[in-house]
């Protein structure tokens, strides 16, 4: 049976270096996924994931358990990716905020319900890939990794209100992209 993160952290701090492998096993897919969303390159994402765990291991004595270990390791990974992206002089783009009404969302949901699930997943993935990297990360953390706004704020260094606005904007962009696909008749082939 698996122990909570705190158990392994304590074991590592007491000198049982091998216990860190349990934390790596538990979070390696999530850390790699976050790095890949930001860096969009398998090799860079693998390297960043390794670097993140090395940094976490070396800094484990400074981890104060004020947030979950997953939030802390996400933060390390996020910061590493942003540093690398800045070195590459890539800029995160933004769009003007637009309102997504409940009616718009309900209409889209009704259309999506009628479609094949595999096609929906494919279209959602394509729409997500068209979002700026930061928005992809926010959507991934919130909807797929089920992180709370507070945790996402800690991971990204953005204020909670800024996280909410950016997630709202990303949802609006995805809605627009899906709606555009619908208008172009992509959905009619179902």
Automatic annotation (TrEMBL):
RNA polymerase sigma factor 70 region 4 type domain segment(s): 123-174
Occurrences of domain RNA polymerase sigma-70 region (ranges): 23-89
GO biological process terms on file: DNA-templated transcription initiation
Coiled-coil intervals: none
Keyword Transport belongs to the record: no
UniProt cross-references to InterPro entries, sorted A to Z: RNA_pol_sigma-70-like, RNA_pol_sigma-70_dom, RNA_pol_sigma70_r2, RNA_pol_sigma70_r4_t2, RNA_pol_sigma_r2, RNA_pol_sigma_r3/r4-like, WH-like_DNA-bd_sf
Signal sequence extent: none
Entry's Gene Ontology molecular function annotations: DNA binding; sigma factor activity
Record-stated family: Belongs to the sigma-70 factor family. ECF subfamily.
NCBIfam families (UniProt xref): sigma70-ECF (TIGR02937)
Protein name per Swiss-Prot or TrEMBL: RNA polymerase sigma-70 factor (ECF subfamily)
Source organism of the structure: Mangrovibacterium diazotrophicum
């Amino acid at each position: 049976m698996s122990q909570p993160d705190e158990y392994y952290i304590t074991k590592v701090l007491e000198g049982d270096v091998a216990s860190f492998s349990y934390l790596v096993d538990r979070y390696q897919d999530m850390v790699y996924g976050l790095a890949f969303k930001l860096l969009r390159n398998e090799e860079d994402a693998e390297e960043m994931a390794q670097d993140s765990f090395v940094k976490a291991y070396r800094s484990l004595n400074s981890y104060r358990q004020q947030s979950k270990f997953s939030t802390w390791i996400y933060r390390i990974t996020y910061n590493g990716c942003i540093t690398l992206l800045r070195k590459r002089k890539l800029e995160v783009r933004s769009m003007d905020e637009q309102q997504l009404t409940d009616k718009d969302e309900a209409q889209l949901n009704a259309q999506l319900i009628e479609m094949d699930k595999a096609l929906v997943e494919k279209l959602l993935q394509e729409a997500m890939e068209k979002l700026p990297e930061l928005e992809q990360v926010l959507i991934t953390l919130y909807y797929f990794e089920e992180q709370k706004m507070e945790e996402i704020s800690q991971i990204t260094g953005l204020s909670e209100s800024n996280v909410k606005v950016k997630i709202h904007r990303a949802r609006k962009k995805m809605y627009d992209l899906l709606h555009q696909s619908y208008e172009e008749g992509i959905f009619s082939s179902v």
